[in-house]
Write a structure and sequence with these properties.
Distance between the termini: 78 Å
Structural class: alpha+beta
Mean pLDDT: 80
Order of helices and strands: EEHEH
Low-confidence stretches: 13-24
Number of helices: 2
Strand content: 15-25%
Strand order of the largest sheet: 2-1-3
Bound molecules: zinc ion
Number of domains: 1
Helix content: 10-25%
Amino acid sequence: MSTTSTSPAPEAITIQDEQGSTTAGTAEQRPLTTADRCDVCQAQAYVRAVLLTGELFFCAHHARKHGERLKDVALLFQDETRRLQETGQA
Ligand SMILES: [Zn+2]
């Protein structure tokens, strides 16, 4: 007689956070708009970096200059520079 019980392991509790709670602060993507300006030169920002200390915005030019370093420390690195190519702006 087999007494092996094959009870299923307790399912891991998956944390679903679809209620829009603000637990993680601002480290989530949102569309960049023309109101978002590069912190260096005030041009329209196409990159947003969320750091522990706050947010930084960069235009495509300064994103290329500072982006690699920021990616290492940013909680969120949002890069929308490809939109520049889609709009075909020179
Ligand atoms: Zn800039």
